[in-house]
């Protein structure tokens, strides 16, 4: 074996050893942080589990005193009539057409872990440029820091499932029937015209407006029984009651009007007698 070949093999061995040490170190950091029980420190905020950034950072520093954190700085651009205009300075956030983004990076035993997060309001919506202030940005940075620490292994379970889309409700097979399919809409107060034009879709594919249904109920016992059955969703039931009440009130006014018009004739008959 030549000297040159020996040198190459020796270098490769060193690199392999170094890679193994780095890999072991990385696994050790994650293994260490993931074993820390953060449940005693978790608080509830708006129905969600919440770990204070100060607590999270303190737990990490207790195990890794040399751990460091930083927030990425970006060239500042502000929206103007002429587009995005640079200001010439760097800031620890980045404005985008979607809102304001921050990035936190933690370094533990030489391993860097980063996470990005948009500045959110109390509804979990990204805040636009005109609604920003440094308090909101600072809060986003600290939440982003906690997420970066979670990626490194601390309290990762807190975020389990947050990126999963909501599963649609499972549809059960339905046989063809004259019963209406349920439409889950938020009931609200509608005008008479809106109520009459409200469409009820049946499971057999047929669609009818409430006006048509009420009209058919006058001559069809089946339709009349269906209206009374309550075999429909809450929204449809609410609108049936609203329209029924309107029709009932109109009928009452019509009847009273007819009675008032007949009153003079009846009175004249009595006098004549």
CATH class of the largest domain: Alpha Beta
Q: N-to-C SSE series?
A: HEEHEEEEEEHHEEHHH
Number of domains: 2
Q: What's the helix count?
A: 7
Please count the beta strands (DSSP E, at least 2 residues each).
10
Which fold does the CATH topology of the largest domain refer to?
A: Enolase-like, domain 1
Rg, rounded, reads: 35 Å
Low-confidence region ranges? 163-167, 179-185, 263-273
Estimated helix fraction: 40-55%
Architecture overview:
By secondary structure, the protein is of the alpha+beta class. It has two domains: 19-159, Enolase-like, domain 1 (2-Layer Sandwich), CATH 3.30.390; 192-272, no CATH class. Helix content is 45%, strand content 19%. It is built from seven helices and ten strands. It has helices spanning 3-34, 53-63, 134-151, 192-196, 210-217, 221-229, 234-272, and strands at residues 43-45, 48-50, 68-71, 74-80, 83-91, 94-96, 99-108, 111-118, 199-201, 207-209. The strands form four sheets. Strands 3, 6, 7 and 8 form a four-stranded antiparallel β-sheet that branches. A hairpin with a 2-residue loop joins strand 4 and strand 5.
């Amino acid at each position: 074996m030549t000297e040159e070949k020996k040198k190459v093999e020796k270098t490769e061995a060193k690199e392999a050893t170094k890679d193994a040490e780095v890999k072991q170190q990385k696994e050790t950091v994650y293994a260490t942080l993931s074993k820390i029980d953060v449940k005693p420190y978790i608080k509830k905020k708006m129905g969600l589990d919440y770990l204070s950034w100060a607590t999270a950072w303190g737990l990490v520093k207790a195990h890794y005193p040399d751990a460091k954190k930083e927030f990425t700085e970006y060239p500042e651009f502000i929206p103007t009539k002429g587009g995005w205009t640079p200001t010439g300075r760097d800031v620890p956030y980045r404005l985008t057409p979607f809102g304001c983004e921050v990035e936190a990076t933690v370094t533990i035993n030489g391993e860097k872990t980063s996470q990005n997060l948009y500045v959110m309001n109390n509804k979990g919506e990204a805040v636009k440029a005109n609604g920003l202030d440094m308090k909101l940005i600072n809060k986003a940075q600290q939440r982003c820091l906690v997420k970066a620490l979670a990626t490194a292994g601390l309290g990762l379970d807190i975020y389990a499932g947050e990126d999963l889309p909501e599963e649609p409700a499972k549809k059960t097979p339905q046989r063809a029937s004259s019963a209406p399919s349920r439409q889950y809409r938020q009931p609200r107060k509608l005008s008479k015209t809106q109520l009459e034009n409200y469409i009820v879709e049946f499971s057999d594919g047929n669609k009818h407006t409430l006006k048509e249904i009420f009209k058919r109920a006058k001559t069809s016992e089946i339709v009349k029984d269906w209206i009374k059955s309550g075999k429909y969703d809450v929204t449809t039931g609410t609108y049936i009651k609203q329209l029924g009440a309107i029709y009932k009130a109109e009928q009452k006014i019509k009847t009273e009007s007819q009675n008032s018009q007949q009153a003079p004739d009846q009175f004249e008959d009595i006098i004549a007698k």
